[in-house]
Amino acid sequence: MEKIESNAPLQAEVVMEPAEVLTLPQEQQRELMLKRLARRVQIPARFISDFRLVRRSLDARGGKMLYKCLLRYATNGASLPPLFPMPLYRDVHNAPESAIIVGAGPAGLFAALHLLKKGIKPIIIERGTSVVNPNSNYCFGEGGAGTFSDGKLYTRSTKRGDLQEVLSQLVHFGAEEEIMLEAHPHIGTDKLPTIIENIRKKIVACGGEFHLSTIMYDLLPQSEGGAITGWRVICKKINGESGESGELEFLSKNVILAAGHSAKEIYQLFYQRGWSLEAKGFAMGVRVEHPQQLINRLRYHLKREPGGSPAGRLERMLPAAEYSAVCQVDGRGVFSFCMCPGGILVPSMTEAGEMVLNGMSNSGRDSKWANAGVVVQIEPEDIHSFEEYGPLKLLKFQEAVEQRIMSYCREAEQASGGRVPTIKAPAQRMQDFMNGKISASLPKSSYMAGTISAPLHKLLPKLVAKRLKEGFKEFDRRMRGYCTNDALLLAVESRTSSPVRIVRNPETLQAPGLPGIYPCGEGAGYSGGIVSSAIDGINAAEAIATAEAIATAQG
Known about the structure:
- The protein is an alpha+beta fold.
- Helices cover 29% and strands 25% of the residues.
- The chain has helices at 18-23, 26-41, 106-117, 145-148, 163-172, 192-205, 264-273, 292-300, 310-317, 393-415, 430-435, 456-459, 462-478, 530-553, and strands spanning 11-16, 48-59, 66-75, 98-102, 121-125, 209-211, 214-224, 227-239, 244-252, 255-257, 277-279, 282-291, 326-329, 332-340, 344-347, 357-360, 369-378, 425-429, 451-453, 488-493, 500-502, 517-519.
- The strands form six sheets. Strands 13-14-17-12-20-18-19 form a seven-stranded mixed sheet. It has a five-stranded parallel sheet with strand order 6-5-4-10-22.
- Strand 13 (326-329) and strand 14 (332-340) form a beta hairpin.
- It is flat.
């Protein structure tokens, strides 16, 4: 038999029973996988010199649950390369080149790490801290919304970059190795802050700068001979709870704008300066909360049997079930978004007078509830108001809906003698929403601030409410029992992605007419999650490194 080199891409899939994956000791699992691998590729087990599990997914289709395990293997004494190659981050204390990064979310942090690899000093400006206020809340702060969210790490954007580069660095900074294996990996709200802190410490140790509680409010070009040669980034430094501020200024040839989808000041700045923006489609809807046991039974096809029965014991062993659903209604997508099995609901407002919700899960995904955003696709041509705001019209539409729903909550709370201002969320049972009636009572919810019974069928825009009703019917046809009054709808889920895109050149990744400005990530309209944002940040950093290398070569 011809010897196969260690880097040969040999892969095969084997199947395992849930009990084998969830209960067998690791060594026994490995022995069983080897036997099945040998049978699958028709090679005697003794000729398989090395193998590794590279992807695992639970398939519950057809009423039978199986783990599908993708294995990479080598033969005839060859070994597989290391799973987690350690990145080489360079010391940039005295680096001749720097780049300013506005925002410390996934795009900004991974841009900074990639700049370290290239020997370029990252200077990170982040408006948030760990305090929840208009400048630092669930959408801002170290790590961005990803720190407070579920930490889901799957993406459909693998063509844009290397998913494994992102995952392996997260493992390097403290994430469990399982994220490299699972088809739908997640880190967990409880574990993300430590990982993000480790990333920050590495950036600083290598000579990068990190400026928290610092808000960028102006961006001024520096010119020489009529050409832009660099940028002055003007910032306010917020000092503690007093709110006192001082001004800071940073200079660099390169600025990565990775401020996230809720940093409205950057959109306003571009709009006022006449720099290139465009309205971008986004999605709006509700968070849907079910009892987790119900979702487990729907997804795993479990019967309602006593906890001591085989089905009951199996349910306790299996991970909290998740779902993904999508359909078309009147030419627009209705789809689940940011599904959080065993999760909780949290407020995600960025300014007073808004009502916005998000979902998150700890690593154990062990709450009693499952929640997901179920949202309706909205395109610029769907909205005929706010035209006077040009490319910001969908942003203004988004704001108007969030404010209208908060106004209802405050008026309802005041009418009942409750405390105002409130962050209680408007809620409605699913079937009551379908039937157009307010709920007489509401089930318990993971949303700790409390709920207010509300006519979401009237509060939501008609183009959203109508399509949601049809979407829920379709989801119920696919998952019988999904549409139930045990399910609670809470509003509003409106920060699915940015409703504005900062235009950039697809080749250079720079904003047109603004050399050295790199719009990046979810806030710029080019990604939709942790991993895709991280990949976009890496690509922006690579574009800077390439431009610097060309400039150096040209003298």
